[in-house]
Each structure stands twice: as C-alpha cells, then as structure tokens.
Amino acid sequence: MLKQIEYTAILHQAEKMTDQKECIKALPPGNTLIVWKLDRLGRNMKDLVNMVDTLCKKEVGFKVLEGAEIDTNTKNGRMIFGIFAALAEYERELIKERTKAGLEVARARKGGRPRKMDRAALRMAAMQNREAKPSEIAKKLNITTTTLYEYVNGDGTLKEKGVIVLGDIK
Questions:
Q1: Can you tell me the distance from the alpha carbon of 164 to that of 3, in angstroms, rounded to the nearest whole number?
Q2: Is the per-residue pLDDT at 11 higher than 70?
Q3: 68 has a pLDDT exceeding 80
Q4: Which residues, other chains included, contact 159 with Cβ-Cβ below 8 Å and sequence gap of 6+?
Q5: Where exactly are the structural domains of the chain?
Q6: Contacts of 149 (CB under 8 A, 6+ apart)
Q7: Element (H, E) at 67
Q8: Rounded to an integer, what distance in angstroms lies between the CA atom of residue 39 and that of residue 136?
Q9: What's the CATH code, domain 13-108?
C-alpha cells in the first residue's frame, strides 16, 4: 500500500533535515520517494548522493519529476545518478584544491596595515629638539602621539619597536 507523505521545503534548515529523516524512516521497502525538483531534497550534491544511497539500502526508489528526470528504479536513472555522484565527487575535490591553494597564498602574503612610523620618520623624531613637545613632533610627522610613544620614550631614546624599524629586524 502506497502512503503519500508531503513535506514542504520552505522550512528552517534544522526542521527540514528532521522532516527528511522522518520521511525516509516512514518509507517501507519497495516504495519510491518522489520530489518535484532535485534541489528540493538536498543542499548540495553530496547530501543528495548520501540520501539516495540511504534510500537504496532501504530498497526505496527515488524519482525527480522536473529538470533532471531521474528514476533510480530504472537502470538509466541509476546511471544518470551515478554520473551526478561522480561529478559531485569531482566538484568536492576541486573545492578542496582551491581552498588549499587559497590558504597557501594567504599564508605566504605579508599582510597588515603599513607602518605609519618608518625609518625616515623615526630618524626625524630622534633628531628633534629634546625640549619640543611630543604633540608638536607628532604633528610634524603626521602621526599621533600614541604612535610616537610606541617607538620613542619620553626622553627621546628608542623603544624596542623603534630599534626594530631602524635596524630592519623582523
């Protein structure tokens, strides 16, 4: 006896997954799960392949009505779905390769914001009159006093960051 089970795809993802699992559990062997469109059943090809594999293990067929007309009850339908599964595997491998390549490029890149205090600015700050106010020195160098104090002590001596900039030590 065929039992008609309806579920709508206009649900939150968690509810949708729960409904799909309940739907698959409710299908006895020999029945067929029919979907209107292939994208109504899974988010990506991997999910679809896993779901159809689960259905096959339960001896339940799978049929798509619109678009890619697939029916796993027929040999042609199983072949078409097998091709889709192979394409899904290929797609996953491409995504892995692209992700790996992107991460390697990102790791190799020296990023970050350029320093406001470079060698020339630091030398100018060190050459300034010791009597000058830090705010005046910072204004002349087009930096903030906070930035100035990151590199130079109040008495005009260099801090560790200042030594690194002048020495190009990284």
A1: 76
A2: no
A3: no
A4: 150, 151, 152, 153
A5: 13-108, 119-167
A6: 134
A7: none
A8: 65
A9: 3.40.50.1390
Q: What share of residues in the chain are helix, strand, coil (percent, to 5)? A: 55, 5, 35
Question: Two tokens at 121?
Answer: 């600015």
DSSP class per residue in 71-134: BTTSHHHHHHHHHHHHHHHHHHHHHHHHHHHHHHHHHHS--SPPPSS-HHHHHHHHHS-TTS-H
CA distance 153 to 91: 57
Residue 168: per-residue pLDDT: 58
Per-residue pLDDT, averaged over 132-145, amounts to: 84
What length does the chain have? 170
d(CA 50, CA 27): 16
Residue with tokens 């006895």: 28
